[in-house]
């Protein structure tokens, strides 16, 4: 429960970023999903498998989550952690891609955030994060992030060309 307020503030900040700087929000979200894949799913499932299982058994809002974590996750938390991390990493990489792949990644991220929301009260702000990603779906993301960050190899910008001696 003590995570609720900080996570809510974080999700509101992501929503604001999605409104004000959609491309920056897309880059942030893609990187965030990749980092969380490693930090939560891989590290937690290996370093503290009991804590990883407790994510779904402490106070789920839907009893099915408790059953799933006891019957599926508890017997093999590391395997579930690796599978979840692989999925989140793919989502992050798709979001960082351009065009249709970015849209697929954003949709997958929204589904993921909504799917894990019933883990407890502390995950309710996920819906705010998901709302920000819905806003990103309304924008075109034609360029892969790696291409967007790469300096152009063509002619220099117009203001540089005009300053060149003739």
Could you please describe the fold and organization of this structure?
There is one protein chain. This protein is an all-alpha fold and 166 residues long. It has one domain (4-163). Helix content is 75%, strand content 0%. It contains nine helices and no strands. The chain is globular, with a radius of gyration of 19 Å. This is DoxX family membrane protein.
Order of helices and strands: HHHHHHHHH
The CA-CA distance between the termini, in Å, is: 67 Å
Q: What's the main sheet like? A: none
Strand content: under 5%
Supply the helix-strand structural class: mainly alpha
Q: Give Rg in angstroms.
A: 19 Å
Low-confidence runs of at least 5 consecutive residues: none
- Strand runs, count: 0
List keywords for this structure.
single chain, 166 residues, mainly alpha, 9 helices, 75% helix, globular, transmembrane, DoxX family membrane protein, membrane
Could you give the topology of this structure?
Elements: H1 4-20, H2 22-47, H3 49-57, H4 63-73, H5 77-96, H6 99-116, H7 126-137, H8 145-149, H9 158-163
Helix pairs in contact: 1-2, 1-7, 2-3, 2-5, 3-4, 5-6, 6-7
Summarize the entry for a quick read.
This protein has 166 residues and is mostly helical.
């Amino acid at each position: 429960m003590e995570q609720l307020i900080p996570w809510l503030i974080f999700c509101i900040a992501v929503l604001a970023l999605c409104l004000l700087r959609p491309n920056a929000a897309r880059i942030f979200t893609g990187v965030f999903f990749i980092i969380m894949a490693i930090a939560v799913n891989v590290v937690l499932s290996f370093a503290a498998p009991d804590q990883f299982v407790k994510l779904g058994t402490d106070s789920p809002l839907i009893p099915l989550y408790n059953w799933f974590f006891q019957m599926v996750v508890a017997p093999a938390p590391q395997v579930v952690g690796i599978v979840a991390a692989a999925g989140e990493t793919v989502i992050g990489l798709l979001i960082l891609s351009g065009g249709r792949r970015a849209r697929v990644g954003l949709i997958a991220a929204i589904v993921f955030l909504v799917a894990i929301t019933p883990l407890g009260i502390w995950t309710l702000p996920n819906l705010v994060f998901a709302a920000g990603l819905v806003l990103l779906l309304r924008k075109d993301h034609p360029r892969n992030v790696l291409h967007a960050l790469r300096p152009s190899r063509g002619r220099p910008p117009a203001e540089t060309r005009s300053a060149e001696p003739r």
